[in-house]
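task queued by scheduler; priority normal; single chain, no ligands, no partner chains; default sampling; output format set to structure tokens
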Amino acid sequence: MDVLKKSILLVEDSKLAQKMAVMVLKPFGCEIYTADTGAEAIIQFKARIYDLILMDLGLPDIDGYTVTETIRELKEKRHTHTPIVALTANAENEFRENAKKAGMDDFISKPLTVEKAEDLLAKYSAKPTPKLRML
């Protein structure tokens, strides 16, 4: 199987949630970069181009909405659009609406599962997403 790597920035302050998300995404051939804070996410976004950003909303320094707004301002200079997907435990409509207003492309609730990852990668990547076989 020909696997094309997808570059993903995972913005998540919980080390456990980071590890779980990385375990889910790795079998798809993803190259995953992590940021523990909003400030770190902005620095990493400036330094490289990603195929997808998974954004926690409740970060310790800058909330995910503000980080997304900053990234959207920066992308104007770059002339590219990186999909940003809210990844949060808060599934209420208010959070979804705020995510959309901030410039996020989509919203999924935690935890990130294989099925959710497969759907996201297929939806937001021009590169083919390999199907995982469950044994």
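post-processing summary
- The first helix runs from residue 15 to 25.
- The mean pLDDT is 88.
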